[in-house]
Design goal:
It contains eleven helices and three strands. The protein is mostly helical. It has a three-stranded antiparallel β-sheet with strand order 1-3-2. The radius of gyration is 18 Å and the shape is globular. It folds into two domains: 68 residues, Orthogonal Bundle (Arc Repressor Mutant, subunit A); 151 residues, Four Helix Bundle (Hemerythrin (Met), subunit A), CATH 1.20.120.530. It comes from Salinicola endophyticus.
Length: 251
Protein backbone atom coordinates (compact mmCIF):
# COMPACT_ATOMS: atom_id res chain seq x y z
CA UNK A 1 0.00 0.00 0.00
CA UNK A 2 1.41 3.38 -0.95
CA UNK A 3 1.81 6.02 1.74
CA UNK A 4 -0.75 8.84 1.58
CA UNK A 5 0.59 12.01 0.03
CA UNK A 6 1.37 15.11 2.08
CA UNK A 7 -1.38 16.91 0.16
CA UNK A 8 -3.93 14.72 1.90
CA UNK A 9 -2.52 15.79 5.25
CA UNK A 10 -2.71 19.43 4.24
CA UNK A 11 -6.35 19.15 3.22
CA UNK A 12 -7.28 17.34 6.43
CA UNK A 13 -5.46 19.95 8.49
CA UNK A 14 -8.08 22.47 7.35
CA UNK A 15 -10.44 20.73 9.77
CA UNK A 16 -8.24 21.96 12.61
CA UNK A 17 -6.47 18.69 13.36
CA UNK A 18 -2.93 18.77 14.69
CA UNK A 19 -0.37 16.48 13.04
CA UNK A 20 -0.66 14.10 15.98
CA UNK A 21 -4.46 14.03 15.68
CA UNK A 22 -4.17 13.49 11.95
CA UNK A 23 -1.80 10.57 12.55
CA UNK A 24 -4.30 9.11 15.03
CA UNK A 25 -7.12 9.40 12.49
CA UNK A 26 -5.12 7.71 9.75
CA UNK A 27 -3.92 4.87 11.95
CA UNK A 28 -7.43 4.42 13.38
CA UNK A 29 -8.78 4.02 9.84
CA UNK A 30 -6.13 1.39 9.05
CA UNK A 31 -7.07 -0.48 12.22
CA UNK A 32 -10.80 -0.23 11.61
CA UNK A 33 -10.60 -1.54 8.06
CA UNK A 34 -8.24 -4.38 8.96
CA UNK A 35 -5.40 -2.94 6.88
CA UNK A 36 -3.36 -3.23 10.04
CA UNK A 37 -4.23 -6.75 11.08
CA UNK A 38 -5.10 -7.69 14.67
CA UNK A 39 -2.01 -9.22 16.26
CA UNK A 40 0.35 -7.77 13.62
CA UNK A 41 3.78 -6.50 14.70
CA UNK A 42 5.02 -3.21 13.23
CA UNK A 43 7.92 -0.82 13.59
CA UNK A 44 7.37 2.91 13.98
CA UNK A 45 9.12 3.37 10.64
CA UNK A 46 6.62 1.07 8.95
CA UNK A 47 3.74 3.03 10.47
CA UNK A 48 5.29 6.31 9.26
CA UNK A 49 5.45 4.93 5.73
CA UNK A 50 1.82 3.78 5.87
CA UNK A 51 0.39 7.12 7.01
CA UNK A 52 2.83 9.55 5.37
CA UNK A 53 3.68 11.57 8.47
CA UNK A 54 6.83 12.15 10.52
CA UNK A 55 8.05 10.37 13.62
CA UNK A 56 6.87 12.91 16.22
CA UNK A 57 3.13 12.82 15.31
CA UNK A 58 3.32 9.03 14.91
CA UNK A 59 4.79 8.63 18.40
CA UNK A 60 2.07 10.93 19.79
CA UNK A 61 -0.66 8.94 18.04
CA UNK A 62 0.76 5.56 19.07
CA UNK A 63 0.92 6.68 22.71
CA UNK A 64 -2.76 7.62 22.58
CA UNK A 65 -3.70 4.40 20.77
CA UNK A 66 -1.86 2.46 23.46
CA UNK A 67 -3.84 4.28 26.17
CA UNK A 68 -6.98 3.33 24.21
CA UNK A 69 -5.88 -0.36 24.28
CA UNK A 70 -5.87 -0.44 20.47
CA UNK A 71 -2.13 -1.10 20.13
CA UNK A 72 0.49 -2.54 22.46
CA UNK A 73 3.91 -0.89 22.61
CA UNK A 74 6.68 -3.49 22.92
CA UNK A 75 10.08 -2.28 24.16
CA UNK A 76 12.65 -2.93 21.47
CA UNK A 77 10.04 -4.54 19.19
CA UNK A 78 8.00 -1.59 17.98
CA UNK A 79 4.29 -2.10 18.48
CA UNK A 80 1.64 -4.77 18.13
CA UNK A 81 -1.91 -4.22 16.91
CA UNK A 82 -4.22 -5.38 19.68
CA UNK A 83 -5.82 -8.72 18.75
CA UNK A 84 -9.61 -8.99 18.77
CA UNK A 85 -10.70 -10.47 22.11
CA UNK A 86 -14.33 -11.46 21.53
CA UNK A 87 -15.01 -12.30 25.19
CA UNK A 88 -13.78 -8.88 26.31
CA UNK A 89 -15.60 -7.02 23.58
CA UNK A 90 -18.85 -8.81 24.36
CA UNK A 91 -18.58 -7.64 27.99
CA UNK A 92 -17.63 -4.07 27.06
CA UNK A 93 -20.83 -3.79 25.03
CA UNK A 94 -22.82 -3.34 28.26
CA UNK A 95 -20.61 -0.39 29.20
CA UNK A 96 -21.01 1.10 25.74
CA UNK A 97 -24.80 0.69 25.85
CA UNK A 98 -25.10 2.80 29.01
CA UNK A 99 -22.65 5.44 27.86
CA UNK A 100 -24.35 5.82 24.47
CA UNK A 101 -27.62 6.60 26.26
CA UNK A 102 -25.88 9.27 28.31
CA UNK A 103 -24.20 10.75 25.22
CA UNK A 104 -27.54 10.88 23.38
CA UNK A 105 -29.22 12.59 26.33
CA UNK A 106 -26.57 15.31 26.37
CA UNK A 107 -26.64 15.63 22.58
CA UNK A 108 -30.40 16.24 22.52
CA UNK A 109 -30.02 18.92 25.22
CA UNK A 110 -26.88 20.63 23.95
CA UNK A 111 -26.64 20.21 20.15
CA UNK A 112 -26.10 23.54 18.38
CA UNK A 113 -27.74 24.56 15.12
CA UNK A 114 -24.51 23.61 13.35
CA UNK A 115 -24.55 20.14 14.90
CA UNK A 116 -28.19 19.69 13.89
CA UNK A 117 -27.42 20.77 10.33
CA UNK A 118 -24.54 18.29 10.13
CA UNK A 119 -26.74 15.52 11.49
CA UNK A 120 -29.34 16.19 8.80
CA UNK A 121 -26.68 16.00 6.10
CA UNK A 122 -25.32 12.80 7.60
CA UNK A 123 -28.81 11.29 7.70
CA UNK A 124 -29.19 12.10 3.99
CA UNK A 125 -25.84 10.44 3.23
CA UNK A 126 -26.94 7.28 5.04
CA UNK A 127 -30.25 7.38 3.18
CA UNK A 128 -28.44 7.63 -0.16
CA UNK A 129 -26.30 4.61 0.75
CA UNK A 130 -29.32 2.62 1.87
CA UNK A 131 -31.87 3.59 -0.76
CA UNK A 132 -31.00 0.93 -3.35
CA UNK A 133 -32.25 -1.94 -1.21
CA UNK A 134 -32.44 -4.34 -4.13
CA UNK A 135 -28.84 -3.71 -5.14
CA UNK A 136 -26.05 -5.92 -3.86
CA UNK A 137 -23.69 -3.93 -1.67
CA UNK A 138 -19.95 -4.08 -2.27
CA UNK A 139 -16.88 -3.94 -0.05
CA UNK A 140 -16.60 -0.26 -0.96
CA UNK A 141 -20.16 0.28 0.30
CA UNK A 142 -19.24 -1.32 3.64
CA UNK A 143 -16.22 0.97 3.92
CA UNK A 144 -18.33 4.01 2.99
CA UNK A 145 -20.82 3.06 5.69
CA UNK A 146 -18.00 2.63 8.21
CA UNK A 147 -16.75 6.13 7.44
CA UNK A 148 -20.26 7.58 7.86
CA UNK A 149 -20.57 5.68 11.14
CA UNK A 150 -17.31 7.28 12.28
CA UNK A 151 -18.62 10.73 11.41
CA UNK A 152 -21.86 10.03 13.27
CA UNK A 153 -20.03 8.89 16.41
CA UNK A 154 -17.74 11.91 16.35
CA UNK A 155 -20.64 14.30 15.73
CA UNK A 156 -22.67 12.97 18.66
CA UNK A 157 -19.64 13.24 20.93
CA UNK A 158 -18.94 16.78 19.75
CA UNK A 159 -22.55 17.80 20.36
CA UNK A 160 -22.57 16.14 23.80
CA UNK A 161 -19.60 18.34 24.75
CA UNK A 162 -18.24 16.17 27.55
CA UNK A 163 -14.51 15.36 27.32
CA UNK A 164 -14.84 12.28 29.55
CA UNK A 165 -17.25 10.76 27.02
CA UNK A 166 -14.75 11.33 24.23
CA UNK A 167 -11.92 9.68 26.16
CA UNK A 168 -14.09 6.67 27.04
CA UNK A 169 -16.41 6.18 24.08
CA UNK A 170 -14.04 6.96 21.22
CA UNK A 171 -11.83 3.87 21.72
CA UNK A 172 -14.98 1.76 22.19
CA UNK A 173 -16.29 3.11 18.90
CA UNK A 174 -13.06 2.06 17.18
CA UNK A 175 -13.21 -1.42 18.74
CA UNK A 176 -16.76 -2.04 17.52
CA UNK A 177 -16.25 -0.33 14.17
CA UNK A 178 -13.42 -2.77 13.47
CA UNK A 179 -15.55 -5.66 14.71
CA UNK A 180 -18.49 -4.51 12.59
CA UNK A 181 -16.33 -4.21 9.49
CA UNK A 182 -15.07 -7.75 10.05
CA UNK A 183 -18.59 -9.06 10.62
CA UNK A 184 -20.15 -7.35 7.61
CA UNK A 185 -17.25 -8.38 5.37
CA UNK A 186 -17.19 -12.07 6.30
CA UNK A 187 -20.65 -12.81 7.76
CA UNK A 188 -22.86 -10.00 6.52
CA UNK A 189 -25.70 -10.25 4.04
CA UNK A 190 -27.23 -7.37 2.11
CA UNK A 191 -30.20 -7.54 4.45
CA UNK A 192 -27.99 -7.22 7.53
CA UNK A 193 -26.01 -4.35 6.05
CA UNK A 194 -29.18 -2.43 5.15
CA UNK A 195 -30.56 -3.15 8.62
CA UNK A 196 -27.42 -1.76 10.24
CA UNK A 197 -27.59 1.42 8.17
CA UNK A 198 -31.29 1.84 8.98
CA UNK A 199 -30.59 1.50 12.71
CA UNK A 200 -28.07 4.33 12.53
CA UNK A 201 -30.62 6.42 10.66
CA UNK A 202 -33.20 5.78 13.36
CA UNK A 203 -30.85 7.07 16.06
CA UNK A 204 -30.26 10.26 14.09
CA UNK A 205 -33.97 10.66 13.29
CA UNK A 206 -34.90 10.49 16.97
CA UNK A 207 -32.12 12.89 18.01
CA UNK A 208 -33.25 15.40 15.38
CA UNK A 209 -36.83 15.06 16.67
CA UNK A 210 -35.55 15.58 20.25
CA UNK A 211 -37.21 12.28 21.13
CA UNK A 212 -35.07 11.09 24.03
CA UNK A 213 -36.98 7.85 24.66
CA UNK A 214 -37.02 7.01 20.96
CA UNK A 215 -33.31 7.78 20.57
CA UNK A 216 -32.40 5.58 23.54
CA UNK A 217 -34.56 2.75 22.16
CA UNK A 218 -32.91 3.10 18.76
CA UNK A 219 -29.46 3.10 20.37
CA UNK A 220 -30.34 -0.04 22.36
CA UNK A 221 -31.45 -1.73 19.13
CA UNK A 222 -28.11 -0.83 17.61
CA UNK A 223 -26.31 -2.36 20.60
CA UNK A 224 -28.52 -5.47 20.21
CA UNK A 225 -27.41 -5.67 16.58
CA UNK A 226 -23.79 -5.52 17.72
CA UNK A 227 -24.45 -8.27 20.28
CA UNK A 228 -25.89 -10.39 17.47
CA UNK A 229 -22.55 -10.34 15.64
CA UNK A 230 -20.77 -12.48 18.19
CA UNK A 231 -22.19 -15.95 17.41
CA UNK A 232 -21.02 -15.74 13.79
CA UNK A 233 -17.66 -14.23 14.74
CA UNK A 234 -17.07 -16.91 17.38
CA UNK A 235 -18.20 -19.92 15.36
CA UNK A 236 -17.47 -19.19 11.71
CA UNK A 237 -14.36 -17.01 11.48
CA UNK A 238 -10.85 -18.36 11.13
CA UNK A 239 -9.08 -17.38 14.39
CA UNK A 240 -6.20 -15.91 12.38
CA UNK A 241 -8.54 -13.06 11.38
CA UNK A 242 -8.82 -12.16 15.07
CA UNK A 243 -5.09 -12.53 15.74
CA UNK A 244 -2.59 -12.60 12.89
CA UNK A 245 -0.02 -14.39 15.10
CA UNK A 246 -2.21 -17.52 14.92
CA UNK A 247 -1.44 -19.85 12.05
CA UNK A 248 -4.41 -20.02 9.62
CA UNK A 249 -6.28 -23.29 9.69
CA UNK A 250 -5.56 -25.31 6.54
CA UNK A 251 -8.05 -28.19 6.05
Amino acid sequence: MNAPSQDKGASTAIKGLSRGELAYERIESLLTHMELKPGEYLTLQAVQERVGLGRTPIVEAVRKLSDDTLVEVRAGRGLKVAPIDLARERELLDLRRDMERFAIQRTIKKASHLHVSQMRRLYESLEALNEARETALTADDIRSFNELDHRMDDLILAAAAEPFLVRTLRPLHTIYRRLGFLFLTYCGTDELIHRNIALHQEVLRAILAKDLDGACRASDELMDFAAGMFPCLEMELDPSLLDASIEPFMP
